[in-house]
Amino acid sequence: MSQPRRLTEGGLIDRSRTISFRFNGKRYQGYEGDTLASALIANGVSLVGRSFKYHRPRGIMAAGVEDPNGLVQVGAGAKTVPNLMATQVPLSEGLQAHSVNVFPSAKFDAGAAIGWGSKLLPAGFYYKMFFGSPVLWRRVYEPLIRRAAGWGKAPTAPDPDLYDHRHHHCDVLVVGGGPAGLAAALAAGRSGARVVLVDSDSRFGASLLGSDVEIGGQLGSDWCDQAIEELSLIDEVRLLPRTTVFGYYDGNYLCALERVEGGPVRERLWHFRAREVVLATGAHERPVVFADNDRPGVMLAGAVKTYVRRWAAKPGERMVLFTNNDRAYETALTADGAGIDVAAVVDSRSAIDPALKELMAGKNIQHLTSHAVTRALGGRQVKGALIGRLNGDRVDGTREKIDCDLIAVSGGYSPAVHLFSQAQGKLIYDEALACLRPRRGPNGQRSVGACNGTFDLSAVLAGGANAGMKAAQLAGYETTAEPPIFTRSRQHGTIAPLWSVPSTGKAGKRFVDLQNDTTEDDIALAVREGFDSAEHVKRYTLTGFGTDQGRTSNVNALGILARKVGKPMGEIGTTTFRPPYTPVTFGAMGGRDRGALFDPARLTPMHDWHVGQNAVFEEVGQWKRPRYFPQSGENMKAAVARECVATREGVGIFDASTLGKIDIQGPDAAEFLNRVYINGWKSLGIGRVRYGIMCGEDGMVFDDGTTSRLAEHHYLMTTTTGGAAEVLDHLEEYLQTEWPDLRVRLTSVTEQWANVSLAGPRSRDVLATLAPDLDLSPEAFGFLHWRDGTVAGIPARIFRVSFTGELQFEINVPWHYGQALWDAAMTVGEPFGITPYGTETMHVLRAEKGFIIVGQETDGAQTPGDLGLGGMVSTKKDFIGKRSLTRADCLRPDRKQLVGLLPENPSQAIPEGSQLVEVDHSSRPPPIPMHGFVTSSYWSATLDTNFCLALVTRGRARHGDVVEVALKDGPTLARIVDPVFYDKEGARREGD
Amino acid sequence: MLLITCPWCGPRDEIEFHCGGEANIERPDKPDQLTDQEWADYLFMRANPKGRYAERWVHSAGCRRWFNVIRDTRTHRILAIYRPDEQAPDVAGPSS
Predict the structure, then answer these.
(1) Helix (H), strand (E), coil (C) string for A851-880
(2) What ipTM goes with this model?
(3) Are the beta carbons of B32 and A698 separated by less than 8 Å?
(4) Which site from A164, A467, A511, B45 is most exposed, i.e. has the minimal number of CB atoms within 10 Å?
């Protein structure tokens, strides 16, 4: 028989559809409806992996999302996904899965040797090592830890799959498709509200799928099927199986991950905005801590029941049940009915419902009260359990050994309050239920069923229906009363808390968090070392840090902590619950926003032409700008040198369309400009252009550019390419919030105007050919003037500005004419040797002139004075940032100032960002005096040397001084000079 | 993610907005008459209350207009939204 642990009948599986899969290279078979975990159990595979720190053998412990052990790597190549929970992987034909964290194999693991030396790896190990020798850390600990603590492997190739994002608004979002969630969805759905019902499982029903309860006279799972059928017929109801809500954010915004079956999309990330939320997320069973409680074969009692009932798979042949509550007895009955030999039911409580005693006696099951399992025996598989009599807070000396291969354990149920807590809901410790349950939550949500501490089925269904109705009503719908539903199920019964079995000696490890290998001893150590709050213990011991977020360990850790510090549970508090509830793939988070769709690309109208010329592009904000246009065989340095010389000696053509442009209109526009720029604007005449600098209110340079007066009440402002949006926001803010009385309107016109810039002594000749009607003589068209005209037959506005230092005309035409103008300029410019140049050449030319680029020479900490532009600061008016310029810090004499820098060796390139330090400091004790840093650095073909702009302490008074440049390959020397390297008198802007 | 009701555009996701910090801090009329300390108070000092807080928001990815929000900093609940030219409504909750 290929599935030795599969029961011959029962289970919600399709036995007619056999599925082949591989686990750790070996072939197995399962059925449609299986998970990887249930199929492994049906095949008798008990060892699924090794633990994180000690590499101990581990098996499946739970049936759901709370399982700490069954982490697997699924698939191969680019599609592989690490660290999936075997309980969450639906079985599919050809599935390939591997254990994570094993070397070389799960059966023989070299890392298990760490277990013998575990005294070297106590809690807080990482933190302690940080104070040790850095060399030891780098050479020994880090490689060791990285090797030992691998959790799966990242794929090495780009993910070929598609991932989607979807946004959805609904009236009522029901999270969890168990009895409470189904009742809520039915009640809300019947009202006509737009309802979404979400469940992690491939099948709705949750606890109903693994039990024999009756609802409305039928089996719970049949009632569930009927409810789903009704819901699927309501137009406004959307059912989302295989979907996990992982985050609950402000304003009822919830995110969920859907694992899509079939189709081109692998996963879908849902963004819900819900008027009302019903949380029906259920509860997770927790284990009890005892020695070697991590052995494969130690399993949660409810999981044993679920594997038998839902998947007809036997987790063992001979079982010991260990419990502190009534609910777990269902597992004894289920196991007994399925032919598992129930060797003993061990109950830690002394007072027990006599009916339970009778029930066990009737089944001839050995029933021990006031007893506990003290240790699991066996290595890769449980071989037996040691049982002792509980006597207060200790265990009596003699212990009995019971042979078994399965220890089912139940320490009670912990409501899944994760989403409730993410929504800032507050918890209370319930003594009677021995669990943390919701106390008070924000508006717009309610918890129902087990996640609210309601465990009896009738109350669960009634509570769910009420919550569904209430939510629909609050969303504006009329509801009709839901009739009560008759149920038949066992009472949830009582519990006496037991977090861990009193220790009986040194033998064995007592695990609290199985995924992180945190033991009870680790918590004791944390408390001894002073880390005695819940948040401290978590960080010191890593409890709850795993991909399972400590679903089976957190409450036990709190209980153990409470006992160690002698406080009641209610005063211990909890750690913070944060998204995501379960791991989310990067693929899903990225969705379609990858590759070319990662960020919008802004292209100028001449972009295709640039591409055709093999331009090398650089990204400036979202703009793609040509950096240089290499001709065949040219590297960047050669291309930029050629473009620079051509522009300085002939004519260059530059695509400046990306410059930010803001249209400013209104009777108070001049007053407005006066307040936002540091220089004066009232006197600027129509037809004139002026360079302006803007500061923030802190007095630091924020942006610069030219503004032209187009008409009496009409200006056109240009901004830096990268700063356009910020400048507009800045101006709008002041206009709306500080000066709403100013009659001014702002409009972004960046993409209305293409800008072809002609620079160089021959630029006038080219423009004259293109615009024969225009008088371009210096007398008629002076520097810092603009003119309307027709250029190449296109209506245009021409600005005489210069960022290169050469005679320069910036020709603005409507965006769609950009290419036509460019083509015309290239054609008529050919006899003049017109040369396209990119941003790198533009940078070199402006740096030779000592012109700053905001964001390159500035980093938000430079005043206009620091940049040598203090003369522009108007003394006649207030402007944004003016008052700050006289703050003591801005008046310090030792501020860094803009200077030029020439390497003593002209061929020495100095990287931007290089630090400038005191020359010949070897004889001085540290610290070495620091003088400043390099902001721009280029090769200048014109100057035949490398040159830099730099910010240097008291720099303007230090022209001629030599500083040392700290470089990776050893220091070099450079001389501080005037930042204007070329054409100091500014004659070139008039041409030659 | 907050759901913010822009006074002009209606309810929109928080990602369409930018928060401009504390509201009702008027730019001084004559900054040059302020001491360094007074200017620094205006420039740098902001309240950081636990509870009701009036702050400015701008609908950056929408109408680009500024408005005022009263938000409870403990719960992130928005208690009121009003235009710059409107009076702040009375809202319950601990004051800042």
Answers:
(1) CCCCCCCCCCCCCCHHHCCHHHCCCCCCCC
(2) 0.95
(3) no
(4) B45
